[in-house]
Design goal:
Blueprint (H helix, E strand, L loop, with lengths): L18 H23 L7 H32 L6 H4 L4 E3 L21 E9 L2 H13 L4 E8 L2 E11 L2 H13 L5 E5 L3
Antiparallel strand pairs: 1-5, 2-4, 2-5, 3-4
Amino acid sequence: MPADYKSMVHGHEKKPLPGFVWLLAGLAIGLFVALLVYLDKQPAIPADFGAAVQKELDKIKQKTSNASKEDKKAEKNSEQQEPKFNFYTILPELEVLIPDSETTPPRTTRNTPDKEGKQYILQAGSFKNMGDAEKLKASLALLGFQANIQKVTVNSTAWHRVRIGPYSQSNDLYDKIDELRRNNINAIPMEIKPE
């Protein structure tokens, strides 16, 4: 009689590996090859740690000696040269901060220039970042003010001042201050000294 193969238990059937296993294996092999290429491109590392430390110390000594030579040259040059004045050092000396008690005088109806030809400006802000100064200038433009940005250096730090004006009439100045305060901008009034 023939054998019944239907009821026989077959040996271990192999199931195919899922796709994510092949994906992970390929990724691992690719990363390994990339690591080998990266390591191949690296410069040779000195094997002697002491030599590397000595090399760094020599670099530092060389930098300090060069710096001291440059300082001596700079001292000699500064002694020989006359002081130079430029616009940015003279301008802050020509400005006077007006106290708040003087910024609210009694209103007059006349619209004539102030005595002695005084000129006033309003400083709406001062920023280290030029982008912040540009934003304030743009918001002032939306309010109808024509502002300018002045770059000054104070204690070796660059500042960007946003200024409005000049105004020759104090009434105009007070009106502008009031309008800015209504828009939550606290501007500082300044008198420009005559030269």
